[in-house]
Amino acid sequence: MSRFIRSLSALSVIAASLTVPAIAQNVPNPGKVQSGNYVVEPAHTQVGFSVLHFGFTNYSGLFSDVSGALKLNAKNPSASSLNVTIPVDSVQTTSPKLTEELKGSNWFDAAKYPTAKFVSTKVTPKGSQDALVTGNLTIHGVTKPETLTVHFIGAGVNALDKKYTTGFQATTTIKRSDFGVKMFVPYVSDEVRLTIAGAFERQD
């Protein structure tokens, strides 16, 4: 028993000596976030999509490896701007077969249209932590105006890489047929719900 107690004591000393990174401060007031030029932090940015599959399930997938820039004006959000680029062949689902089909010519045709893009044209604040971000969305070679509903999540210095980071959640619903992606409509719903988790690192 005494040996067990000594072991526990030793573990306690080791644990106490470990430095655990503090959680990044979540700034509750977007007006206090640092203004400046940001770039997408791709490892923690995801673009999720969901469609109604044959009336049975809401089937989801996602895109990754997003790049882009955010010009953030915390004091005057309407002066902010955003542009992002999504590599189409980053699409993923839980079915390897479906993932490859989505990259093909019947769906996104990643070989011909390798990227999707969103470039903002207007930012309209809605309360202290929300905004509507209108812009031009390009998918499958077709550009249409779309509006994102954006919610501020938080900001602060990332405890791991020490970079000042801010994050947002955005949603919108689009019609894929508007962009020429019509395979299996209406059995696979024309409406596609997009959910974006966006992380941005300050550059200056």
Automatic annotation (TrEMBL):
Signal peptide region: 1-24
SUPFAM superfamilies in alphabetical order: YceI-like (SSF101874)
Pfam families according to UniProt: YceI
Record keywords, A-Z: Signal
Domain Lipid/polyisoprenoid-binding YceI-like: 37-201
Domain of life the protein comes from: Bacteria
Name of the protein this chain belongs to: Polyisoprenoid-binding protein
Organism whose genome encodes this protein: Swingsia samuiensis
Higher taxonomy: Bacteria, Pseudomonadati, Pseudomonadota, Alphaproteobacteria, Acetobacterales
